[in-house]
Design a protein that fits this description.
Elements (H helix, E strand, L loop, with lengths): L8 H14 L6 H16 L1 E10 L4 E8 L3 H4 L3 E3 L3 H9 L3 E3 L11 H6 L6 E8 L2 E11 L7 H42 L9 H13 L6 E4 L6 H10 L8 E5 L5 H9 L16 H4 L4 E5 L6 H13 L1 E3 L6 E3 L3 E6 L3 H6 L5 H7 L2 E4 L9 H17 L5 E2 L1 H9 L5 H15 L4 E2 L1 H4 L17 H19 L4 H8 L3 H10 L11
Parallel strand pairs: 7-12, 7-13, 8-9, 9-12, 14-15
Antiparallel strand pairs: 1-2, 1-6, 2-3, 4-5, 5-6, 10-11
Helix pairs in contact: 1-2, 1-6, 2-6, 2-19, 11-13, 14-16, 15-18, 18-19, 19-20
Length: 509
């Protein structure tokens, strides 16, 4: 790196320090870019700055980071790659000093007219990787109304070159990290278990009950609407029990016709029926020394209910077509979204079986009654599907947030997951927009579960969970978190106080 003699020692030391920092922090691209811009502004005494990235496919420049008085408004813009001073820099792959912006023919007033922020002078420098311009750093309005100097330009060019390399490294780092996370998720999936996401007090209370109930050998009946996550709670009951090293076998009682369900549950011997060409183990035999999860137990035919009752009472059964008694050591966890007490009253479900299954009932409330879980679940699904669709989404727009939090989610978590997946498929980065969600008939959560339904209230709730997530990821370092969130550290401190965000690990800085 060749440096001009015009760069003073103070700026040189600052460049060395910045270079060390940006090349040692690849954990978050946005935080890295925000740090670069903030450093650039300090070095050349600018009032505002922006970093625009080139999209070769769309032939556009996107405001990835914007700092200064109108930074938030500027970030909304996408401009043509051949438009304005930044477009000239990209096209010519050269830097510019423009100390009379208003009279420069290359200047496009589109952003200025929309934001109301007047640009008097500007530095615009290309970010290059292997001599290709991948973006532009702009510094606006030199302090004390002075014009930018060639020394300022040289300092910014040095920083921009290092920033481009660091940005590319950060992209590779993030891509590798996402692949690792995906592989870890795949390992969990291959083992057959799901990730449990819980933030609401009511679900945390249910998980506490699971901790205590799991040690028992008694049957558990999980109740709740379709899509609330009953299977996940069944998994947790198994994983927290002394049977965790044994099998966890799932059976959807509503998915199989009655003629096949008995064979599926208890197995059959060769010749028991036309298609029984060999002996077969049933799910109960497979679950020996483990747990069997009987989902949609309310749909179990009456003809099989007596046989299931015997398994609960005696731990024994016979395969279809056999008189040999098989004994198993299995814990039964059942679930249903139906009103099982009503089924008992209508004599569609045996009362003695109901009482044996309902030794330890566990009711899982619908998503509309646990609104605190929605932000965390939405972010979890966004991170999951953005990797699958290979799009670099970073979050939700404000209108999308309000739509997500004000919708009643009749299909619960399953509907939320499908909605986020669809939005990732049809949406365009960096943010999921409200129209991408395709939500209709929006309605607020139940009155008796979340009384304050103002837009400000639900957005603050999302902010609280998102800020807490970022703070946890940065080990509660408020300076790092503020960079990730692209806000001032003092503003972050105020939000922590206003939103009553607490550090459970007591590591706040």
């Amino acid at each position: 790196m060749k440096l001009s003699n015009s760069i003073d020692a103070e700026k040189l030391n600052a460049l060395i320090e910045i270079n060390t920092l940006i090349n040692s922090n690849y954990s978050d691209i946005n935080a890295l870019l925000a740090h670069i811009l903030d450093s650039a502004m300090r070095l050349v005494s600018g009032e505002a700055s922006s970093l625009l990235l080139v999209d070769r496919n769309k032939k556009t420049l996107r405001f990835e980071i914007a700092l200064g008085p109108k930074g938030i408004e500027a970030k909304k813009f996408v401009v043509k790659a051949d438009e304005g001073i930044a477009g000239w820099v990209v096209h010519n792959n050269r830097s510019l000093i423009v100390n009379d912006v208003a009279n420069d023919p290359r200047f496009s007033p589109t952003v200025q007219q929309s934001t109301g922020y007047k640009t008097q002078n500007m530095l615009a420098v290309p970010m290059r990787v292997k001599d290709e311009c991948i973006g532009v750093i702009e510094i606006l309005n030199k302090g004390m109304n002075d014009g930018f100097s060639h020394e300022d330009l040289e300092v910014l060019e040095i920083l921009a070159n290092q920033a481009a390399i660091a940005y590319e490294n950060a992209k590779h780092f993030q891509r590798s990290r996402d692949e690792i996370v995906a592989l870890q998720d795949q390992i969990v999936t291959d083992r057959g278990y799901h990730t449990m996401i819980a933030k609401s007090p009511v679900i945390l209370e249910k998980l506490d009950i699971v901790e205590r109930v799991a040690r028992s050998e008694s049957s558990v009946l999980i109740l709740g609407e379709s899509g609330v996550g009953k299977e996940l709670f069944a998994e947790q009951l198994h994983l927290k029990s002394e049977r965790a090293s044994g099998p966890f076998v799932r059976v959807n009682c509503a998915a199989l016709p009655e003629g096949l369900l008995e064979s599926e549950l208890f197995g059959h011997v060769k010749g028991a029926f036309t298609d029984a060409i060999s002996n077969r183990k049933g799910r109960f035999e497979m679950a020996d020394k483990g747990t069997i999860f009987l989902d949609e137990i309310g749909d179990l035919p009456l003809s099989l209910q007596s046989k299931l009752l015997r398994v609960i009472q005696n731990k024994s059964f016979e395969k279809v077509g056999s008189s040999e008694t098989i004994t198993v050591n299995v814990r039964i966890v059942a679930a249903t979204n139906r009103d099982i007490e009503k089924l008992v009253e209508e004599q569609k479900f045996r009362s003695d079986l109901y009482y044996r299954l309902n030794v330890l009932p566990l009711y899982i409330p619908p998503l509309r009654q646990r609104i605190e879980d929605i932000p965390e679940l939405a972010l979890f699904f966004l991170n999951k599907f953005r990797h699958e669709v290979k799009k670099e989404f970073v979050g939700f727009s404000e209108s999308a947030i309000s739509a997500i939090l004000s919708y009643s989610w009749p299909g619960n978590i399953r509907e939320l997951e499908n909605t986020i997946e669809r939005a990732c498929v049809i949406g365009r980065p960096p943010y999921i927009q409200e129209e991408d969600l395709l939500l209709k008939n929006r309605s607020m959560p139940d009155n008796n579960t979340y009384s304050d339904k103002s837009l400000k209230s639900v957005i603050n709730l999302f902010k609280k969970h998102y800020i807490q997530k970022v703070l946890e990821e940065t080990d509660w370092n408020q300076t790092s978190a503020a960079q990730v969130l692209e806000i001032q550290r003092t503003y972050l401190s105020r939000l922590i106080k206003e939103l009553e965000i607490k550090d459970s690990s007591s590591k706040a800085t």
